[in-house]
Design goal:
MetI-like; 258 residues; MetI-like fold; membrane; globular; 0% strand; transmembrane; cell membrane; mainly alpha
């Protein structure tokens, strides 16, 4: 029965993805004919160029960008979740750290890229640190709020069983906050791709952001759109990976849904 439900879920997800691609393709063709400019090439020409460039050129840039994003998201997920759970479970820690978080969260941290380049150099570290600095707060706040929303009755029920602090986190706090953390992670992926695109325009020769902007400077708009297509597919891959993790770790949230 579970296998049939999993197959149905995968089929629905595939059909929704195909529908989204077709809708974007129709819109792209409409813009191509309406604008009538070389700046918006025909979709089929960009798609053909994408498949020509993918095996050697685009794959190299995608792997570099994907590596930067995965490292940054992994570090942000571990640190942000740990701090958020700690703040949500301890009022004293929350009173100590919340004012700092509330002051730093709204700041446009992308302005710190020059500072990060001075501190960590022009290589990979500064770009990864910029992504971490931006998305860690979203995961932290989501984890803290998730702990706060747990009803007190559940705490009393777990504590009445004689479980210790470690078991409390494992069997109650972490499962209750995982859906919120996964939602924050999904939002963070979109933000991290945008930030990476910006960061890859400085002091680098590899990365899909560099490829797109370099194609724009060379006025090769077909190649530029093939890079945009590659960036979109990378984002889709990351989103699907998070969906699979959510289905595996938070399967109970799908119960009762059609």
């Amino acid at each position: 029965m579970k296998r049939i439900e999993s197959l149905n879920t995968l089929q629905r997800g595939f059909l929704q993805t195909v529908y989204g691609m077709l809708a974007i393709l129709v819109f792209w063709y409409g813009m191509h004919f309406f604008v009538g400019s070389a700046a918006i090439p025909a979709p089929h020409t960009a798609i053909l160029r994408f498949f020509v460039l993918l095996p050697v050129v685009l794959s190299r840039h995608l792997l570099v960008s994907l590596g930067r994003i995965v490292i940054a998201i992994s570090i942000s997920l571990v640190l942000g979740s740990a701090l958020g759970l700690w703040m949500g479970a301890s009022q004293r820690v929350d009173r100590l750290l919340s004012p700092v978080v509330y002051l730093l969260y709204p700041l446009p941290k992308i302005a710190f890229l020059p500072v990060l380049m001075i501190l960590f150099g022009l290589g990979e570290t500064s770009k990864i640190m910029l992504i971490i600095l931006i998305i860690i707060f979203q995961i932290l706040v989501a984890a803290r709020d998730g702990v706060r929303e747990i009803p007190k009755e559940l705490y009393f029920s777990v504590l009445s069983l004689g479980l210790g602090r470690g078991a409390l986190y494992r069997h109650l706090i972490l499962p209750a906050t995982l859906p919120k953390i996964m939602t924050a992670l999904r939002i963070s992926v979109g933000i991290s791709i945008s930030i990476l695109f910006f960061g890859e325009n400085y002091a680098t020769t590899y990365g899909i952001g560099y490829f797109i902007m370099n194609s724009w400077l060379m006025a090769d708009y077909v190649e530029m759109f093939s890079g945009i297509l590659a960036l979109s597919l990378m984002g889709l891959l990351l989103f699907k990976a998070i969906d699979l993790l959510e289905a595996r770790w938070c399967g109970w949230t799908r119960l009762g849904k059609g």
